[in-house]
Amino acid sequence: MKLINLPLLLILLFITALGNSQTKVDKSTATDVKAMKDEGTEIKEGWTHGVSINAAFNQASLTNWFSGGENFSMGLNSVLKANAIYKKKKNLFKSSFEGAYGLLSSTSTGGIRKTDDRWVLTSSLNTKSSKNFYYTLAGQLKSQFANGYSYTNNVRNEILSAPFAPGDVKLGIGITYQKNSNFSAYISPLTAKINLKYGKAFLNKSIFGVDSGKTSSFDLGAFVRLDYTKELKKDLKYTGSLDAFYGYVLRNYNFYFANMINWKLNKYFGATVGLDITFDNTQPSYTYPTISGVVTKTEGKAKMQYKQLFGLGFNYSF
Question: If you average pLDDT over residues 170-185, what whole number do you get?
Answer without folding.
Answer: 92
